[in-house]
Design brief:
Blueprint: H1 2-17, E1 20-29, E2 41-46, E3 52-55, E4 74-82, E5 90-95, E6 104-115, E7 121-132, E8 142-146
Antiparallel strand pairs: 1-4, 1-6, 2-3, 2-5, 5-8, 6-7
């Protein structure tokens, strides 16, 4: 009997560790001159224990035919995958720096995870408020927002 209980608990742990979630990401581009970009944008969010969701390109997660990352706009991206075990607290946002307008001013990124089985949610807003551009300070095409220590 003890073996059956142990196997049941193990199966429950494994199934919840691989639960599927829907992810909604809202990216707000600043309302500054030349704030928008045509570059490819990637996103990685992670928990305090290092579990990650990596999106190599946000474009396939967005609306087909929509021009993303325009000045003063908020763009919505949706996808699904393996749930993060806890609320994310770290984000890496990166531009490839290519396209007609490679520089980009990002206000914020809002992340929501919805577990498909029980509809529980984990939400986090990452305030960026800076350029991802080689020709604007601080001169980098990526930003890391780490709120894990807070």
């Amino acid at each position: 009997m003890k073996i059956l209980v142990a196997l049941f608990l193990l199966a429950l742990t494994v199934s919840s560790a691989y639960a599927q979630c829907k992810f909604i990401i809202l990216v707000t581009t600043g309302d500054r001159e030349d704030a928008g970009t045509d570059a490819r944008v990637s996103l990685s969010v992670s928990t305090a224990n290092g579990k990650k969701l990596v999106i190599k390109s946000l474009k396939p997660w967005g609306q087909k035919g929509h021009n993303n990352f325009e000045k003063g706009h908020t763009d919505k991206f949706e996808g699904s995958g393996k749930c993060l075990p806890s609320k994310p607290c770290r984000m890496l946002l990166e531009s490839n720096g290519k396209g007609n307008k490679p520089g980009w001013f990002v206000d914020k990124v809002a992340f929501t995870q919805i577990e498909q089985k029980n509809l529980s949610q984990k939400e986090k807003t990452f305030n960026v408020n800076r350029w991802l551009a080689r020709d604007e300070s601080p001169g980098t095409l990526f930003v890391v927002v780490d709120d894990c220590a807070k």
